[in-house]
Specification:
Elements lengths: L8 H12 L4 H79 L5 H83 L6 H11 L3 E5 L2 E2 L8 H9 L4 E2 L6 E3 L10 H6 L11 E6 L8 E8 L2 E8 L10 E4 L2 H4 L9 E3 L5 H7 L5 H32 L5
Parallel strand pairs: 1-4
Antiparallel strand pairs: 1-2, 3-4, 5-6, 5-9, 6-7, 7-8
């Protein structure tokens, strides 16, 4: 297949626009339909994902609220513990007061010692509770800081989450608007596809995710299976709808993806010149009767010559094979004018017979490559002649 460097975007866009006009109307509409189907699927998935996104936002907010509630609960628990320790201190103080009153009325040392022991035990309990209260007072500062930090984080996150929720709602509204537009485009595209072809597209798209595939580099780009030369030529010719034998997708050819030779690179190649006297001769004509560009091959055999004509784009045979007496240049003088270009080409008679009424893709591409080289060579000769004339007849100063 012919290769070239990437064209500038504006040039490529214009080429695609022109070449799409040469596609079958059904294929054009199927391309638009597949694009609409893909956009509709994408939008539906995005719209379905937005509620899950909002739920995730709410879950994140709930987590921040839980952190704040935990911090507040810790403060409340410390306050409750402090009140409990203060109550225990008060109880012990009352006990001490009671024990001291009782010590004034005792009559024996044993009773007095027992009351002193109770008083000491109560005082120890008071000191232990006071230590716990002191520890809670120290922790209270940390707890307050935790609460304030959690409140600040919650406030900031609520503002951010509200912003995200607004964006999610706006995105949903925009997606729904685009979905309505693409549904309308889809309906228009479906209406432009023939009723016998549309079920084929729908059936394959339902099972394989897409009902259409580009044919490029001799293969189906969806399933990557190589296409037969005849099938590939039929897709490129775009005279009727062709289906991939492997995946059943409807095939189309985008000529903008065909790369043509870089004139600079081509100019550096040395082109072999075809022998003038030969039993087989190939020519290119930019216009042949009502068929446009064609390749012609002439065969000389035992005083007769035959002419085969093949379409320059599809490689398909044009008209009948003509046989006349004499060498081909004398037998078909009407074919040779200033526009005809002699090409390199030499295939065996058995190969020609095997091709039948259609050139193989490899042969068609080889002819196109040689045609490109011949054109570059012709332009170089014309440029050289122009420079020679200019040097021999300089402009008067």
């Amino acid at each position: 297949m012919r290769r070239c460097k990437q064209r500038p975007y504006s040039v490529r866009a214009k080429i695609v626009e022109v070449l799409l006009l040469k596609m079958l109307p059904d294929v054009q509409n199927l391309i638009l339909l597949q694009q609409a189907d893909r956009e509709i699927l994408r939008l539906k998935e995005e719209i379905a994902a937005l509620p899950r996104r909002v739920a995730a936002i709410e879950e994140r907010l709930a987590g921040t609220k839980a952190v704040l509630e935990k911090a507040k609960s810790a403060v409340k628990a410390d306050e409750a513990a402090r009140r409990k320790y203060e109550s225990a201190i008060s109880d012990q103080q009352q006990k001490i007061s009671k024990y001291r009153d009782q010590s004034l009325a005792v009559k024996t040392n044993e009773q007095y010692k027992a009351l002193l022991h109770e008083i000491q035990f109560a005082e120890q309990d008071i000191r232990a509770n006071e230590d716990k209260i002191l520890e809670l007072m120290v922790n209270a500062e940390i707890r307050e800081k935790d609460v304030k930090a959690a409140e600040a984080e919650l406030k900031a996150e609520m503002a951010e989450i509200e912003k995200e929720k607004i964006e999610a709602r706006q995105r949903t509204a925009e997606d729904e608007k685009q979905l309505a537009e693409w549904n309308a485009k889809r309906d228009t595209a479906r209406a432009g596809v023939s009723s016998d072809l549309l079920p084929q597209y729908d059936r394959v798209a339902r099972h394989r995710g897409s009902g259409l595939s580009e044919a490029r580099d001799h293969k189906c780009m969806a399933c990557q299976v190589m296409l037969r030369p005849q099938t590939y030529n039929e897709v490129r010719a775009a005279t009727h709808v062709v289906v991939c034998e492997s995946c059943q997708r409807i095939l189309y050819h985008d000529p903008s993806h065909d790369e043509e030779p870089d004139p600079v690179v081509v100019a550096r190649r040395r082109r072999a010149h075809p022998k003038f006297e030969s039993s087989q001769a190939w020519y290119f004509r930019p216009s042949f009767e009502d068929h446009g560009e064609v390749f012609l091959v002439y065969l000389n055999n035992k005083g007769e010559s035959s002419r085969h004509v093949f379409d320059g784009s599809s490689g398909r045979g044009v008209g009948d094979v003509l046989v006349r007496e004499g060498e081909y240049r004398l037998a078909f003088p009407e074919d040779f004018n200033d526009d005809v270009i002699r090409l390199n080409g030499s295939w065996t008679e058995s190969e020609l017979e095997e091709w039948g009424n259609e050139l193989p893709t490899a042969t068609l591409d080889a002819l196109h490559r040689d045609l490109d080289l011949a054109r570059v060579e012709s332009r170089k000769r014309g440029h050289a002649r122009t420079e020679t004339v200019a040097s021999e007849h300089p402009a008067a100063s």
